[in-house]
Amino acid sequence: MRDEDSIAPTSAEGRPPAVLQVVPSLVSGGVERGTIEIAGALAAAGWRSCVASAGGPMVRELARAGAEHVELPLASKNPITICRNGEALGELIERLGIDIVHARSRAPAWSAWRAVRMTGRRFVTTFHNVYPTDLPFKRHYNAVMARGDRVIAISHFVAEHAARTYGIGDERLRTIHRGVDMAIFDPAKVGAERVAALARQWRVPDGAPVVMLPGRLTRWKGSLDLIAAVARLGRRDLCVVLVGEPQRGGFRRELERTIARSGIGEAFRIVEGCRDMAAAYMLADVVVSASADPEGFGRVIVEAQAMGRPVVATDHGGARETVIPGETGWLARPRDPDSLAAALAHALALDAEARARYARRAIAHVAAAFTRERMCAETLAVYEELLPRKILEAAAPATARYAVSG
């Protein structure tokens, strides 16, 4: 991790474009993963790539991607801290010659908004989901994400919400789906020993069909609905794996009690995190996203399809854009265990030939629309819309090199 005082300033003339992304922290999660991927793409294109956050274990990945990190308490929602962060970001922008500030979360976006107003730099925001607006204060708090010179939405579902709720016009709003690193999520690169190691670790019985729900162990991810759906199937040969980091509170205990009452408790495994998700998907016969509320995008379902796995997702939000019903997976009604059970039954009934057809279609679907390279190239194109002509002309060859190499 680099301290801001160790980062040398850049000159106003003859320098590459410079982008500063701001996020609360770099601990875990899809927002953080996307931040690192864009940071690496900027560095690969010859741009100066910086990230400000409260830090975390993923800072090491940022350094490997060729980007710089500045530690600030950007996870704080305290108004005084937000104001102080704005001042610190303003000083940082001037020192580093930052051209564009990209805010990916609401609390740091307020600090970034203050900083760009001080410095006259361009401002980009990303809506990662549909933010709740049930309270007047929440609506105001969320509205900072609509103030970007360009506003990126991670799905058409999120873009429609942003346009409808905050009046963002087409001249500022851009939809860029999140992308999967297909160098990692490639079934040809996952050896049998990696899959076997996970099967042993998770005590998966030989020959048992595996149903997997990856995602944080929270109520809204739909694990209780999955338990009810599996119980309705009446099959005792399944192994159901819930993979995800636990959140604060007693939800894991509730999960365990619900599993015990299901009558098929021996079928379930709760796994708190996995370091090899590519192998985990290969172990699964079907991958489930049963979110009770709409996901802004739903990276899990796209990663699983990239690995050639049939998927079942709830029929709302970003899943409607990433799943092709009957071709790459199934959509079930949200909060409806009967509908989820019916979709699971279809997926588990596929024979080897049908599974192979689903795999080919799913991999081709992701490769055509949801790759990391596409996401990064489209994001850099948004930055280019905001760059002064002089800087853009100097940057064009580097941008072209990234597009070709990506």
Tell me what the structure shows.
This protein has a seven-stranded parallel sheet, with helices on both faces. It contains 16 helices and 13 strands. It is of the alpha/beta class. The longest helix is centred in the N-terminal third of the chain and has 18 residues. The N terminus is likely disordered.
Q: State the distance separating the first and last CA atoms.
A: 26 Å
* CATH third-tier fold name of the largest domain: Rossmann fold
Estimate nothing, just give the exact number of structural domains: 2
> What is the CATH C-level name of the largest domain?
Alpha Beta
Rg on CA atoms, Å: 22 Å
Question: Could you give a short account of the major beta sheet?
Answer: 7 strands, parallel
- Globally, the shape reads globular
The helix content, as a percent range, equals 40-55%
- How many individual β-strands? 13
Question: For the record, what is the CATH homologous superfamily label of the largest domain?
Answer: Glycogen Phosphorylase B
Separate helix tally: 16
Compressed to H and E, one letter per element, the order equals EHEHEHEHEHEHEHEHEHEHEHEHEHHHH
Q: How are the strands of the biggest sheet laid out side by side?
A: 3-2-1-4-5-6-7
From the coordinates shown, what is the CATH architecture of the largest domain?
Answer: 3-Layer(aba) Sandwich
Low-confidence stretches: 1-11
Pairing-aware structural class of the strands and helices? alpha/beta
Portion in strands: 5-15%
Q: Averaging pLDDT over every residue, what do you get?
A: 91
